[in-house]
Design goal:
The protein has 420 residues and is mostly helical. The chain has 15 helices and six strands. The protein has one domain: Chloroperoxidase (Orthogonal Bundle). The strands form three sheets. A two-stranded antiparallel ribbon has the order 1-6. Strands 2-3 form a two-stranded antiparallel sheet. Strand 4 and strand 5 form a beta hairpin. It binds protoporphyrin IX containing FE.
Length: 420
């Protein structure tokens, strides 16, 4: 049996062994989305430090133009729309670490981890840069699938089912998310609300996406993003008086309700009035702890973690597996040039070591490099190694002012706009 067959068999065994709670059908709630939203507006954080108010003076919102690059990350899109990042969406390492801290109080270890992977897999190592959406010619950028962008995102469709559109807000997903928030006692997008969203999305992808790709690093980014909703988008500090209400969340992720249709239009991300960032940094360890204890248990979608199902699954073991996952990433600039790969990995490991995420601390072996894609059917149409033309066309930068995916794409849906 080959290593890949072995790996796939282990995955299947993990999936079969994991308890899979049934996710209730929520269609009734979705139909009532307009009514549900009414109770989700309102309260603004009390007792906040005025220094944390955002945006600061001189960082006004300006909607992106057609040539500005925007993609799957609402946090980075917003920072570019407010001028904390270059408004054209072509960003570099220093800018991202600085802007994510200043705008949202993201810990430097977390922003470094995300940025290093993005530069390595989606950008240009020479000037440590990447595009927020798609690079020139629809190549690279954060839209590039299965590198940092992953399946089972909170409010974006899977790459395969969305026909390459993994980066616009999906109206049906945010309707579902809003319905879950309406079940919360304070009608907020809490960790519990986001855990329900995770469970529903994971089950949907497992049922419908034959190319579901859930490899450690991108999958942890997708999972982390569920915890980012309350922790970064709350008005004030989540867990310390901050409120993760509809008003903040919908404005920051750019979901504008059309009260006539009950669908969400995707508009440029911006801070709402009178908004305060969290007062303390949120870094790698609290993020992974929230993911492990509050989000992932709601649905145990199998990942290639040997520790799955045992007490050994911890932030440290996840970091270690992520660290090793660097070996399987195909850097954008280096496809087919394996001789340069070692240099790229050395660069990225050095950056991670600077913020304390080094192999010495985590005890992870870094000796073997591999270019393998861990998907058995990677070359089939729609697979990661063989995207059809429609998929490539859909990989372009975000187009705002449209509504995408009013219905769940149970099979690849290339005609995804539903504004009319
Ligand atoms: C530090 C650099 C960052 C990088 C490189 C990055 C990259 C990404 C990427 C590639 C995705 C798509 C993941 C997926 O497929 O689910 C994503 C999603 C997301 N990011 Fe970021 N991100 C960064 C910082 C931030 C910050 C500062 C925030 C919050 C303030 C944030 C919030 C989110 C959220 C909530 C999503 C999920 C969007 C959705 O599907 O609803 N990110 N990010």
């Amino acid at each position: 049996m080959t290593g890949k067959e072995d790996f796939l068999r282990t995955l299947k065994e993990q999936r079969d062994a994991a308890p899979q709670p049934q996710v209730e059908k929520r269609q009734g709630l979705l139909d009532n989305v307009v009514g549900a939203v009414g109770g989700l507006l309102g309260s603004i954080a009390q007792s906040v430090n005025p220094d944390n108010r955002r945006p600061e003076e001189g960082y006004e919102f300006i909607a992106p133009g057609p040539d500005d690059s925007r993609g799957p990350c609402p946090g980075l899109n917003l920072l570019a729309n407010h001028g904390y990042l270059p408004r054209d969406g072509f960003v570099n390492y220093e800018q991202v670490v600085e802007a994510t801290s200043r705008g949202f109080n993201m810990g430097a270890d977390l922003s470094t981890l995300l940025t290093v992977f993005s530069i390595l897999a989606n950008g240009d190592i020479a000037d440590q840069s990447f595009y927020l959406g798609s690079g020139p010619g629809n190549v690279g950028g954060l839209n590039r699938h299965s590198t940092v962008e992953a399946d089972v995102s909170p409010n974006r469709e899977d790459y395969y089912l969305g026909c390459g559109d993994n980066h616009h807000i999906s109206s049906r997903l945010f309707k579902q998310n809003t319905a879950f928030a309406s079940e919360d006692a304070n009608k907020e997008f809490t960790l519990e609300t986001m855990a329900k969203q995770w469970a529903a999305n994971a089950q949907f992808s497992q049922d419908n996406n034959p190319f579901l790709y859930f490899f450690p690093f991108p999958s942890i980014v997708a999972l982390g993003a569920y915890a980012f909703y309350p922790n970064f988008f709350s008005n004030g500090t989540y867990g310390d008086g901050g409120v993760a209400n509809f008003e903040s969340i919908s404005s920051i992720i750019g979901a504008k309700l059309n009260e006539e249709t009950g669908e969400f239009e995707y508009v440029p991300e911006r801070w709402p009035e009178n908004w305060y960032r969290r007062s303390t940094p949120y870094g790698v360890i609290p993020a992974l702890t929230d993911v492990l204890t509050r989000i992932y248990p709601a649905y145990l979608l199998p990942m290639p973690f040997g520790q799955l199902g045992s007490d050994n699954l911890s932030p440290q073991t996840i970091l270690c597996v992520i660290y090793q996952g660097l070996q399987s990433i195909q850097p954008l600039a280096l496809e087919g040039q394996t001789r340069s790969l070692t240099g790229a990995i050395t660069w990225s490991l050095g950056k991670l070591a600077d913020v304390g995420l080094s192999d010495t601390i985590l005890g992870c072996p870094t000796s073997t490099l591999s270019n393998d894609w861990l998907v058995a059917n990677a070359s089939m149409a729609g697979g990661p190694l063989n995207p059809p033309t429609d998929y490539v066309e859909n990989a372009g930068n975000n187009v705002f002012g449209q509504t995408y995916f009013c219905e769940a794409p149970t099979e690849p849906t290339c005609n995804n706009e539903c504004s009319a």
